[in-house]
Amino acid sequence: MARLPLLLVIALLAVGVAACGSDDDGGSSSAEATATATAAADACAPDQLALVNAGQLTVGTDKPAYPPYFEDDDPSNGKGFESAVTYAIAEQLGFTEDAVKWTVVPFNASYAPGEKKFDFDINQISITPKRAERVDFSDPYYTAPQAVVSLKSSPTADATSLSELADAKLGVQIGTTSLDAVTEKIQPSSQPQVFNDSNDTVRALKIGRVDAIVVDLPTAFYITAAQVPSAKIVGKFDAPGGDYWGLLAEKGSSLTACLTQAVDKLKSNGTLNRLTERWMGGKAGAPTLG
């Protein structure tokens, strides 16, 4: 009869040991995860990065630098979407503002193969498979929505929702994602007019052949600022097939993972959303169409 309690004691001790082992394993896994995260952070510290110039973050972009991406043709003033994003990235990487140095890099030269004289380039550069064969990209810091552009004198200029555009004569360029966006999101009562190239599309807007055209938002900013000053951005809307922009680095750069880590942090803490709304949203003249 005395053996039963003894067996129970042994069994209970075994369970206790197993439970302790489980806790130790969990603690070990947690510690390993923390160590991995710490190691990744240490690898992205300024003194650990392989930079073009030690202690300095060299950033490339084109010249002239246009709004709303840069203001006053001066990337270093922190004004404009991509200037503001750059300084936010720099802060995540541990660089002060005065440690960020800008250099002029023509757009097409940025993604040409070969050695780079910058640490990363920011210039509305779309991430494409062909370009990714030659250079590295971070995770996207921006996805370009579609936008409706109308003459200021057109009845469509005051639309505040997509449903208000259903009966408008809309124009789009062939081969772009805008046609699918119009069909899926606006669902017009008549087929949109399709034009062969961007010049024909803009011309149709100018002469009133269409009430409005649908293009990606960056193109809309350019049209209203440079091509048709008498036009306005009625609004923007999300649609499938958006254009993804990434920070560009030299192929195989050890900095790429750190850039992605910084971009992802700015996404998770809401900084990118705030900068996008400030410089690319309603305050920039591109309200969201409901």
What sequence of helices (H) and strands (E) makes up the elements? HEHEHEHEEEEHEHEHEEEHH
Number of domain units: 2
Largest sheet: 5 strands, mixed
Oligomeric category: single chain
CATH superfamily of the largest domain, by name, is Periplasmic binding protein-like II
Structural class: alpha/beta
Helical coverage, percent range: 25-40%
Cα end-to-end separation: 79 Å
What are the segments in which pLDDT stays under 50 over at least 5 consecutive residues? 1-23
Strand content: 15-25%
Question: Strand order of the main beta sheet, please?
Answer: 8-7-9-6-10
Q: Strand tally, please?
A: 12
The mean pLDDT is 88
Number of helical segments?
Answer: 9
CATH class of the largest domain: Alpha Beta
CATH fold-level name of the largest domain: D-Maltodextrin-Binding Protein, domain 2
Query: Given the C-alpha coordinates, what overall shape results?
Result: elongated
Instruction: Label the CATH architecture of the largest domain.
Output: 3-Layer(aba) Sandwich
Radius of gyration: 26 Å
Strand and helix map with partners:
Blueprint: H1 3-43, E1 57-61, H2 81-93, E2 100-104, H3 107-110, E3 120-121, H4 129-132, E4 135-137, E5 142-144, E6 146-151, E7 170-173, H5 178-186, E8 193-195, H6 198-206, E9 212-216, H7 217-227, E10 231-237, E11 243-245, E12 248-250, H8 256-268, H9 271-280
Parallel strand pairs: 1-2, 1-3, 7-8, 7-9
Antiparallel strand pairs: 4-12, 5-11, 6-9, 6-10
Helix pairs in contact: 2-8, 2-9
